[in-house]
Amino acid sequence: MEGIIVLFVLMIFVIIVLVKSIALIPQGEAAVIERLGRYTRTVSGGITLLVPFIDRVRAKVDTRERVVSFPPQAVITQDNLTVAIDTVVTFQINDAARAIYGVDNYIVGVEQISTATLRDVVGGMTLEETLTSREVINRRLRGELDAATTKWGLRISRVELKAIDPPPSIQQSMEKQMKADREKRATILTAEGQREADIKTAEGEKQAKILAAEGEKHAMILAAEAERQAMILRAEGERAAKYLKAQGEARSIQKVNAAIKSAQLTPEVLAYQYLDKLPKMAQGSANKTWIIPSQFGDSLEQFAKAMAKKDDEGIFRYEPAAVNEETKEMASEEDTAEWFNTESDPAIAAAVAAANAVANKPVESPLEELSTSREPQGQRELTQFDEPVPSFEAQPVPPQNPRPYESN
């Protein structure tokens, strides 16, 4: 029985010795080994053999990169404003022995150093610079922390400002300022848009007025040219009408004269006509008394002696003059159908057609011609509206079928 108890005690002792002799270190951790209270080595990842009751594991350190967020720190800026800044530090332990023996608590040390450095950096900046200089603050914090924690076996890989919270009153002021800035920009943009719209509207009205003026100008030119052509054509017609009327009167006089000569009237017929007309001359309502001159008979006698020949009986007899062939031909009947021909003269018809072509010509005012219409006066090229309208000179209009009317 005693032997069994001794064997059981020996087995327990062997198990305790084995447990004390083997240390299992997980991957990503490092263990600091002490022998009789003195640092001997640092081990990581795997099984480590120890001298029982002489070696021991002082501490295990996580060698992975760690991200630590520190609570907000009150920092006073250069313009005496207190802001709360949250920082996030990313670091890794390179030397586990230094992290254990170099500092009591490296997390607290990093926090205190980052707070002091942050106050030093932000204290030389205004609030606006602090809000807009995150990258500068991050670089300075990382540099200061890396230099201070190197002897602790730490490597600072990144420092970030998570939040910068100004006082509530300052936040309200900043919000008001931002709102005022936005309203200012909106007002400026609205004014710019209104200005552009007014400019475009003015340009459009200007172009419209220019086009309207150009159209009125060309319309007045065409109207004036049409009036001119109409006056010319009316003058041509009046002249032709007067000319034809004069020709007709001359022709009628010649016809009457030729008819009288061809008829070979005698003084007896003239005397009969005279006596026949006397009662009609006396029928006027204003004729009260009709006086025949006493020398009237003497005048007739002298006329008869001058125009007649005395025959064998002593009586003066009128002998009409001989009638030539031209007079007979003129006194004869002729075709008068051509006198009433109403066809227009070819020259007048051509003038009317040309005037209609000019009046019916489309008026085009393209916008691109506006830039060329501002050329110096006297050097501007003629546009399609400035084409000269063919002028029609006043030409005498001959009769349709003219005949040589010559008086005898």
Spell out the blueprint of helices and strands.
Blueprint: H1 2-21, E1 22-35, E2 38-49, E3 55-62, E4 66-76, E5 82-93, H2 96-101, H3 106-122, H4 127-132, H5 134-149, E6 154-165, H6 168-263, H7 267-282, H8 296-307, E7 308-310, E8 316-318, H9 325-331, H10 346-359, H11 369-372
Antiparallel strand pairs: 1-2, 1-3, 4-5, 5-6, 7-8
Helix pairs in contact: 3-5, 6-9, 6-10
Please provide a written account of the structure.
The chain has 408 residues and is an alpha+beta fold. It folds into three domains: 61 residues, no CATH class; 101 residues, 2-Layer Sandwich (Tetrahydropterin Synthase, Chain A), CATH 3.30.479.30; 130 residues. Helices cover 52% and strands 18% of the residues. It is built from eleven helices and eight strands. Strand 7 and strand 8 form a beta hairpin. The longest helix is centred in the middle third of the chain and has 96 residues. It is rod-shaped. The termini are far apart. The C terminus is likely disordered.
